[in-house]
Amino acid sequence: MLGVASYTFRSFPRAQVIEYLKQLKVTTLNAKDVKDHLPMTTPEATTQAVEAYKAAGIKLTAVGTVYFPKDEDEDIRSKFEYAKRAGVSVIVTGDPTLQTLPRIEKFVKEYDIRIAIHNHGPEDKIWPSPLDVLKAVKNMDPRMGCCIDVGHTERAGTDVIQAIHAAGSRLFDVHIKDLTDFTSKESQVTVGDGKMPIRAIFEALLAIKYKGNVDLEYEVHGDDPMPGVMNSFAYMRGVLAGMGQKS
After folding, report:
1. What is the full per-residue pLDDT of the chain (247 aa) written as tens digits?
2. Structure pTM?
3. Which residue segment(s) compose the domain that 168 sits in?
4. 73 vs 39, 104, 109, 240, CA distance in Å?
5. What per-residue string of b and e applies to 179-190 under the rule 16 or more CB within 10 Å gives b?
6. Which letter does DSSP use for residue 160 in this model?
């Protein structure tokens, strides 16, 4: 259930990301085209990264955040080919317009790869809340859904527990973080040190029979993330253990 969003380690190359995951005893990764984590530049570069993770015993569960700036078949197909090479069934995306969704849906059907639209809080003019995503995709293919970022969700004024239940089977990924102030993006802290209802989030995910990953996206202390990352995992694992769940 617990994984890492590679953006957490955005200041470090792939080899170091692999070492960090080994230290954390984490074997799943939502990989992004940042540094050399999962390059989009060429098919060969993507494949080389996939093979490195595989050799290290790390499973890629999603790619992203991937962006769709063009409402064009060629550009959209290239992103689905990228996900296919990575061997994942979920693309986390942050910026598709409402007008682009039907074209993306066409490729979802062709590739059988799910789209998880990542909400980005009140600064996001299209997808501030998961509820905005759900409203847009409600009549589309069931593989069109959302990635709930719990911090951005609360900052958008949406109760994250309500959002999880509303998403149900359209929830394909969760990016988890903690905040001391739900009105401030800059208030992110180690998971367990803020106001985020972590246990209630896990309970809600169990209630909807969520089968995806909960990926830590630690966006502070970019040059020295491991102390906060390790403490975040220790806290989440402790919460799950107290619920009788494996992490």
Report:
1. 899 999 999 999 999 999 999 999 999 999 999 999 999 999 999 999 999 999 999 999 999 999 999 999 999 999 999 999 999 999 999 989 999 999 999 999 999 999 999 999 999 999 999 999 999 999 999 999 999 999 999 999 999 999 999 999 999 999 999 999 999 999 999 999 999 999 999 999 999 999 999 999 999 999 999 999 999 999 999 999 999 998 8
2. 0.96
3. 2-242
4. 21, 8, 14, 43
5. beebeeeebbbb
6. H
Query: Residue 51 is part of a domain; what is its CATH number?
Result: 3.20.20.150
Q: Domain tally for the chain?
A: 1
Judge whether 143 lies within some domain.
Answer: yes
> Quick check: is 84 in a domain?
yes
State the Cα–Cα distance between residues 89 and 83, nearest whole angstrom: 7
Question: Any bridge partners for residue 203, and if so which?
Answer: none
Task: Evaluate whether residue 210 is within a structural domain.
Answer: yes
